[in-house]
Amino acid sequence: MDKQLDGYRWLVVEDETMVLLMIEDMLADMGCVSVASAATCEQALKLIASQSFDAALLDMNLNGARSDSVAEALAARGVPFIFCTGSDMLDVAPKFRHHPVLRKPFSYKELLDRVSHLHLPAR
């Protein structure tokens, strides 16, 4: 597979286990060395405070809670991220509309396309 993400550390914030496993597999196939995951905003915020990430994939709705606080924490640290949603893409808060969005379900090729447009740190 494509090793475009060789050596990168990702945070995946996703509350659906099957979707999380699919994303982890896709990122591993792209070469990620580390994928941390969180199912709630609280878990994600703790990980962001205690670890460094090169990028993140962020579900917009975590068991009914909007993930805006996680997006703000990532943006404050300069971590590029992709929103992921199974609902209307207009649900993205206006201040985050410049971030890429993946609509669930998505394919490996769609994820790879969004990743290729992120401004990742040089490796």
List keywords for this structure.
single chain; 123 residues; alpha/beta; Rossmann fold; five-stranded parallel β-sheet; two-stranded antiparallel sheet; 4 helices; 7 strands; globular
Q: Can you offer a commentary on this structure?
A:
- This protein starts with 8 loop residues before the first strand and ends in a 7-residue tail after the last helix.
- It is built from four helices and seven strands.
- The strands form two sheets. Strands 2-1-3-6-7 form a five-stranded parallel beta sheet, with helices on both faces. A two-stranded antiparallel sheet has the order 4-5.
- The longest helix has 13 residues, at 17-29.
- The chain has helices at residues 17-29, 41-50, 68-76, 108-116, and strands at residues 9-13, 34-38, 55-59, 61-62, 65-66, 81-85, 101-103.
- It is of the alpha/beta class and 123 residues long.
- It is globular.
- A hairpin with a 2-residue loop joins β4 and β5.
- The chain has one domain (9-116): 3-Layer(aba) Sandwich (Rossmann fold).
Please state the average pLDDT score. 90
- Put simply, the count of helices is 4
Distance between the termini: 19 Å
Number of strands: 7
- Under CATH at level 1, the class stands as Alpha Beta
Q: Main sheet: which strands, in order across?
A: 2-1-3-6-7
Instruction: Tell me the Rg in angstroms.
Output: 13 Å
What percentage of residues falls in helices of 4 or more residues?
25-40%
Query: What is the strand content?
Result: 15-25%
Order of helices and strands: EHEHEEEHEEH
Principal-axis shape equals globular
Strand-pairing-aware structural class:
alpha/beta
**How many structural domains in the coordinates?**
1
In CATH terms, the superfamily is Response regulator
Largest sheet: 5 strands, parallel
Low-pLDDT windows of residues: none
* CATH topology term: Rossmann fold
